[in-house]
Amino acid sequence: MTDKNPSAFSVAVIGAGPAGLFAARELATAGVPVVLFNRDIKAGGLAEYGIYPSKLKMKDGLRRQFRQILDLPKVNYIGNLPISLDDEISLADLQAMGFDAVLVTVGAQGTKRLGLPGEDLPGVYHAKDLVYHYNHLPPFSQQSFPFGKRVVCIGVGNVMLDIAHWAVRTLKVEELIAIARRGPADVKFSKKEMETVARNLDLAALDAEFERTAPVMRAIGQDPEAAKAFILSALENAEEPVSETRFELDFLISPKRILTDGRGQVRALEVEETTLVARPDGGSKAVDLGKSHEIACDTVVFCIGDRVDDGLGLPLDKWGDFAKNPNPSFPVDETSYEAFNPELQQPLAGVFLAGWAREASSGLVGVARKDGTNAARALLGYLETVTPKGKAATEALASKVAHLGRPIVNKADLATLAAAEAAQAAELDLPEFKFDSNEEMLAVMGKLQREKS
Ligand SMILES: Cc1cc2nc3c(=O)[nH]c(=O)nc-3n(C[C@H](O)[C@H](O)[C@H](O)COP(=O)(O)OP(=O)(O)OC[C@H]3O[C@@H](n4cnc5c(N)ncnc54)[C@H](O)[C@@H]3O)c2cc1C
Ligand SMILES: NC(=O)c1ccc[n+]([C@@H]2O[C@H](COP(=O)([O-])OP(=O)(O)OC[C@H]3O[C@@H](n4cnc5c(N)ncnc54)[C@H](OP(=O)(O)O)[C@@H]3O)[C@@H](O)[C@H]2O)c1
Predict the structure, then answer these.
(1) How far, in Å, is the centroid of ligand 2 from the Cα of 441?
(2) Atom of ligand 1 lying closest to residue 46 CA
(3) Whose CA is nearest to atom 40 of ligand 1?
(4) How many CA atoms lie less than 13 Å away from 23 in the CB half-sphere?
(5) Which residues of the chain have pLDDT under 50?
(6) Model-level pTM greater than 0.90?
C-alpha cells in the first residue's frame, strides 16, 4: 500500500482452501486485516478433503503451511460458517457490514449434471461426494455410498484415477471401466496417478482399444504410439496390485443414459459412439456418431469436474462459471480476478474471485495458491482506490456472530481439534485420525457443552 494505512481496511475472504489461505497470507503480509470465513470446521478445502488420504506426507506439508498462515495475527478465522444466500450470512451481508472488499475462494461446490436419464438413480454418483466421503468431510463422511461390483467411471482425469484408486485398492470391486468421449491422446490424468492402479489394467483390452482408435487418431494428426507409450509408462513404477479388479479404459464413447433392471437397480450405462474432429486450436473434439451400445454395470461415477455454487448469489457467465470482468481494472498476469454482472455489463465493485471459484476444477494446489496470491494483489490494487471504512465491519460482524444459531470455530479451536485427533491417532496406532462428524469435532473443542450451558 502506497499512501494508505493498511490496518484501516478489513477484507473478507470466503473459503479457506489453498486459494483463500494463500490470498489471506498475501493480504496480511501487506498489513491488511483479513477475516477468513470457512464452511467447514477445518481449513484446507480439497487439500484436506480431496487429495487422496494415502498422500499423508503431502497433506501434512500443506497443513503445516496452512497453520503458519492461520497463525498470522492479521488473519482471523471463522470456521463452520457457510456464506450463502441460504444461510445466516450472505455475501451481500458482508458488504453491508462494511468490509472494504470481499474475495470469493469457495472452490467449485456445485455438481456438473449432464441431465441424462437415470442420473439420480441409487448407485449413480458424482465423484466429489465420494471423495469427500472417504476423506471424512461431514456430512458426506456420515452418508453411505453403496458400491456394486461393476463400476463405470465417466471421464479420464486425475479425479477418475482417485476414484479408481479407492475402488480398486480399498473396495476391491470386480471391474472398473473408465470411459472417455475422446481418444487415448486426450486423457487428462498424469502418469504418477495412473501408477496406483496400472497393474490392474487389462492390457489385452487396452491393446484392442489402441488398435480400434488409431485410425481415428491418425486422421486428425494425433500420434497413437505416443499416446500408448504415455499410458503404458505408468507400468514401470506401478504399485503392487492388491486386488483382482479388472481395470479397462474405453475410448470414443460418451454417456447417454443409465438403464435399470426394472427394480430400480442400475444394470447398464448406454453410451453413444463418437469420432474425433480437429479443432482450429490444434485440439480435438468428440462428435457423436448416432450409434449406441450398453456397458453392463451396477455403479456409475461421474468424474467430469465440478461447477461453481449458485448459493453465493454471484452472476454467472454463459458457461456457468462466476462471471469475470472482461476488461479488468486490476489485472494480474493478464488475468481478471474481478466479479462481473453480465446483464448490467458492470463489475461488482470490490468483489474478487480466485482458485476453483474463478476457474472450476482447474489445476493443482500450486495453481490455486498462485491464483489466490494474484487475486490478493489485484484486491490490494483496488484498495488503493477507495477510502477505508475503519472498524465498522469488525464491530458489525462481532454483533452478528454473537447471535448465530451455530457454534463457530476459531484458530485456538482448530489447535484443540488437531491435538485431539493426534491423540486418537496415537491411541489407535493409526497414521492419522479424523472425526467423522461436526458434532464430535465440536465436542472435543468444547463447543457443544458451551452452547448448552
Ligand atoms: C479429488 C481431488 C484430488 C486432488 N488431488 C490433488 C493432489 O493430489 N495434488 C494437488 O496438487 N492437487 C490436487 N487436487 C486439486 C486441489 O485440491 C485444488 O487445486 C485446490 O484445492 C483448489 O483450491 P481452492 O481454494 O480454489 O478450492 P477448495 O480447495 O475447494 O477450497 C474451498 C474452500 O471454500 C470453503 N467453502 C465452500 N463453500 C463455502 C461457502 N459458501 N462459504 C464459506 N466457505 C465455503 C470450503 O469449505 C473450502 O475450505 C485435487 C482435487 C480433487 C477434486
Ligand atoms: N493427484 C492429483 O494430482 C490430482 C487428483 C485429482 C484431481 N487433480 C486435479 O484437479 C483438476 C480436476 O480434475 P478432474 O479429473 O475433475 O478434471 P479433468 O482433468 O478436467 O478431467 C475431466 C474428464 O471428464 C471428461 N468430461 C468432462 N465433461 C464431460 C462430459 N460432458 N461428457 C463426458 N466426459 C466429460 C473430460 O473429457 P474431455 O477432456 O473430453 O473434456 C475429462 O476426461 C485437474 O487439474 C486435476 O489434475 C489432481
Answers:
(1) 32
(2) 29
(3) 82
(4) 37
(5) 450-453
(6) yes
